[in-house]
Amino acid sequence: MINLRGIAAFLTLLGAAVPSHAAGATIGVVAPQNGTLALLGAQIAAGAGFEIQQSGNTLVAINETCEENSGAAIADALINAKVQVAIGFLCSETLEGALPKLKDANIPAITVSVRSRILMEDALKNGWPLFRAAPADGAEAAKIIEIILKDWAADPIALIEDGTIHGRELTEAVRNALEQNGLKPVFTDTYRPGQEQQIALVRRLKRAGATRVFIGGDRNDVAVIARDAKAENIPLSILGGDAMRAADQPLPLITGVRAVALPEYTVRPESAAAADALRAKGIEPEGYVLPSLAAALIAGQAAEAAAAASKPLQEMLLGTTFQTPIGTMAFTGAHELSQNPYRLLEWRGNGFFPPAAPTQ
């Protein structure tokens, strides 16, 4: 596991506090260094710092407070450090204030976290140099809809959700897509979350004739529903969302339950070498570590290409496909990832893995 003291030592080793401005690109890494978000910030710093060191570029670490009206000062710090590109940006509050100044300084910003659709719309309208190396708002629902329409269209489908804002909006997006395609769920319901058993719910699903169930809820509720359906001998194919990526407790998930979620990059073949190299440095490649490493790699390669072609760095971000430890990445003209990073995964014993049969 990453610890904050270890990351502080790692950044000191990189010379982040006083950048040397050696040959290569100067890359700003904007991430929280203290407070409640410090652990996530440490993951960003670890992944980006590792790649920047490996590539011989220069790292400029900037603390991100995620407070309202903090972005302008962060932009000033990046500009004063003469960075060519900045990555990280855990919070939308930072970007809202930083982007206008970064535009004037021709410094692209690559966020590994912020998903706001409105912020990107504002960025495109105002010419702000924002690039999103994270899923856009709505990407999770889009992949769920794609999977259901492809694999479930001929079967009786139930849609249930836990009443939370995210669960309700996700399930409503699926329902609307089904109706637009002439499909009507045989059962819809809002269940009470956090219950020790859901036998009444699974019996109602059986009476409705449902064999496929999408659940807009958290992992433990899905585990309870799957367990009770199995105990009642009710055959249900269960699909959840990205909330399924959580601790497998207190009730373990039953093998075969599926989720549309971001993949666990450390189990992917293309990530193995980077994961091993990080672990050799005492860094567990969890959370934002590998995505931030990929963002730093993109930033460095784009800067190198821009220098070689005597073109603005932003043009290289738009016109290049990058091979990274988390897969091939490219940005669309709307500054979003060209491929939806969500995948259909299946729980098998100790983790989510791609289903054995090709389904996407």
From TrEMBL:
UniProt superkingdom: Bacteria
* Pfam families found in the cross-reference section: Peripla_BP_6 (PF13458)
Q: Where does the secretion signal sit in this chain? A: 1-22
Q: Where is the Leucine-binding protein domain?
A: 26-349
Q: Keywords, A to Z?
A: Signal
UniProt KW Membrane keyword = no
Q: Which InterPro entries match?
A: Leu-bd, Peripla_BP_I
Q: Does the keyword Signal apply?
A: yes
Q: Spell out the PANTHER family in the cross-references.
A: AMINO ACID BINDING PROTEIN, LEU/ILE/VAL-BINDING ABC TRANSPORTER SUBUNIT
The UniProt entry's sequence similarity note says: Belongs to the leucine-binding protein family.
Q: What is this protein called?
A: ABC transporter substrate-binding protein
Source organism (scientific name): Rhizobium anhuiense
